[in-house]
Amino acid sequence: MLRKIISLLVVLILSGSLLWHYKVNILLWALPKIINIANPIQENIPTTWSHGPKEVLDASETRPNIILILADDMGYNDISLHNGGAGDGSLQTPHIDSLAENGVWFSKGYAANATCAPSRASIMTGRYPTRFGFEFTPIPDYGGLVLSWLAAEDDHVLKRRIDQELATNLPDFMDQGMPSEQITVAEILKQAGYYTAHIGKWHLGHSNGMSPNDQGFDDSLSLGGSYYLPEDDSRVVNAKFETDIDKMIWSSGQYSAQFNGGEYFAPDKYVTDYYTDEALKVIENNKNRPFFLYLSHWAIHNPLQALRSDVQEMQHMSGHNLQVYSGMIKALDRSVGKIVQKLKDLEIYGKTLIIFTSDNGGANYIELEDINQPFRGWKITFFEGGIRVPFILSWPDEIKAGIKYEHPIHHFDIFSTIAAAAKSSLPDDREIDGVNLLPFLKSDTLQKPHQTLFWRSGNHQAVLHDDWKYLVSINENKKWLFNTSADPLEQNNLVENSPQQLQLVEGLLADFNDAQQEPLFPSSTLMPILIDKYDGEKIEENDEYIYWSN
Fold first, then answer.
1. 231: DSSP letter
2. 137 touches 550 (CB < 8 A)
3. Which has more confidence, 21 or 530?
4. What pTM was computed for the model?
């Protein structure tokens, strides 16, 4: 009897030990099943977009239609206009390139942040997101738990630092968002008589007045999950990585969308194409009245999934991962082409203001080394690779074609530029950081829109003042100072050689920080990010890095 009891105890101890050892894998295995139970997905539900008038009611209407197309995690080198395209330079993006050739290419277009949500908040409000405390990217409820377990298993010198109590007690994911009292560009356009539609990723909260429908959009088709197609769909080719973020994305993914806050349902095609086709419906339905379409693509964020037909055209490229990634870019470029062609078919292309950009640079966790070339750094860092993004504006009736604008501009300029184009008033009860770019594009003035720009994510901060760029990772007292005119690729750190410039930019950054609001929800993690290597490459003694707060 005693032997049986001892044997049972041994089995229980060993089982418990194995379960604890593989706890992360078990959790990641269980997540999709839990999520599917909590958020059941219905069959495809056709959308019912609002219809405008059958005919143009006011022939004197001069306000433009406005389309804002936002890519996700698109690296500077991912469009052929910039540096020959992804991989070996053979990937071409003719439709995105054409948008620039027929409008304005901002060669120094900067994201508001190096991660998704704060950039989106800045675009929507025309303000530094830190002015209203939206400093960090919302993470799912389970994210803190997974990260704390992963941190305990770090076996290299650059270890994650997780405040487990904070990480497991963050507000609900739906409550981590932009406060409802912030005024969005959709709200000012709606007040001015525009029809407003949102399609795709939101990432700015969904409760307490934070949803797209509560923030000025008449209609909203929201991203419901992270899959472009179900993983086992015969139409799709997948690429997976051993990086932590990729594992979490795959494990928590769903193939779903949500229309105007209704039930979650499965789209009927590859998500990039699905969003595009829905956008075409919006344009068709509202061609006879001023409209604002915010097409916020999930592409090219991981999980890497591309249509088999697109991947087949990339077989000349070396490596499966690059082929899939390039196929995703091809679909995004096709989306831009379809939008432009629809406008031309309806004879409203000339009177439509189109802005194309990305929320931040390319990510280190997809293990593709040249997506942000020629610049250093990745998404999450404030080196140029993390915040220098594709940025294009087209308005054929008003802005001449073929402009290459070389002064720094910023995501928050989109707000003021759109408002000016629509002849809408800016809010007068708050500071708007962005400026209307149109006068700079219509004249030969040498005046710059901005002398100084700032970025902040807790421990990691940066300032660009004239040609001087300063970055700091505060907890490690790591500092970089670059003369971007002489050294645009950020190779020569001048911290030791330029004390006066260092003092100037540190003072500017301190003044900026004093004017910002405390974060709406705290940072619970400090994540090491190598500047010159992607996630998974071997860490060596002289590798430069920052610690990113979130």
1. T
2. yes
3. 530
4. 0.93
